[in-house]
Design brief:
single chain, 302 residues, alpha+beta, BirA Bifunctional Protein, domain 2, 3-stranded antiparallel beta sheet, 39% helix, aa-tRNA-synth_II/BPL/LPL, Seryl-tRNA synthetase, ligase
């Protein structure tokens, strides 16, 4: 039996994930949520002393910001938009008749001004740009949001709606690079403290199409993205549970993020895939939290 399906079935049977009839869209049990909450407290203990400004955006973002971000140029296959009924009473009658006949009633829906957030940091950049110049020493932000990516899969670690915790640093290049390296070290230590076998490797985003292949090569050649990998459904192909991304001055130029001097800021982010980390813990230590190793439980719950 396929290892991904087997692990997913075990999660369903244990009640940790709840099937909805759509691949990659699951309910979560109280125990599953408790593991995520415990790991977020570990994130807070590790990163809290840095003094980041905490911001929590909803899982939808301004469509105009989304379009300006260039996401559709690079990842159209992953994007999700929100459409709604905007018709009159006659249109409503037609919609109901369409549903009764088993036809596609969604064709009458119209795009709204909201799209589903693809990454927790996307709403941050235009928000901070509106505040004015970035401080010379840089600014640090703590984010968490549900995110959407359209990639239905039987792999429980590849969900369509999932939570991402991020720290984003905006500042001078040398400090941004030091921030990323610091979190690569911290991330490895954090995962090992909860008994997870990890390694970090250079990576790339899933850019779309022929032009995307050039972007993949460029991203890997410049070491712009690293991922912390943990075996969940495959030892040969471990799952990325954290990412460490250096954007150079890309977002500084795109959103007008700059210092008082007018020079664009550089940015980097560290992202935690919260569901994936919980799945890695369940896969490694078993589906019953009460039977996890004592040292792991102490780190997570004290």
């Amino acid at each position: 039996m396929d290892m991904q399906v087997s692990f997913l079935d075990r999660l369903f049977e244990a009640g940790l994930l709840i099937e909805t009839g759509v691949d990659g869209l699951y309910g979560r049990s109280g125990q599953f949520e408790d593991v995520i909450a415990a790991f977020e407290r570990l994130i807070d203990r590790t990163g809290g002393p840095d003094g980041a400004e905490a911001i929590r955006f909803p899982p939808g973002m301004n469509r105009a910001y989304f379009e300006a971000s260039g996401y559709m140029k690079s990842f159209p296959q992953l994007a999700g938009t929100i459409h709604s009924f905007c018709g009159c009473e006659l249109d409503h009658v037609s919609l109901l008749k369409c549903m009764e006949d088993g036809q596609d009633w969604t064709k009458g829906q119209e795009a709204t001004d909201i799209v589903l957030t693809p990454a927790a940091c996307y709403p941050l950049y235009p928000t901070i740009a509106k505040r004015g110049a970035v401080k010379a020493g840089g600014q640090l932000y703590d984010l968490q949001s549900y995110c959407f990516r359209h990639e239905p899969s039987k792999d429980p670690a590849r969900q369509q709606l999932f939570r991402m915790r991020e720290y984003v640093f905006m500042g001078p290049q040398d400090q941004v690079m030091a921030f990323r390296q610091r979190w690569m070290d911290r991330g490895t230590e954090m995962m090992r403290s909860v008994g997870l076998d990890v390694h970090i490797d250079v990576a790339n985003d899933p850019f779309f199409g022929r032009a995307g292949r050039l972007l993949v090569n460029n991203q890997r050649d410049q070491n712009l993205k690293f991922e912390l990998l943990i075996p969940i459904t495959s030892v040969e192909k471990p799952t990325a549970c954290m990412s460490f991304n250096y954007h150079q001055d890309q977002f500084g130029l795109k959103w007008g993020l700059h210092f008082e001097s007018g020079e664009p800021v550089h940015t980097a982010c560290v992202g935690f895939g919260l569901e994936r980390i919980a799945l890695a813990l369940f896969h490694t230590h078993g589906l019953d939290v009460a039977e996890w190793p004592d040292d792991v439980r102490r780190v997570l719950w004290g």
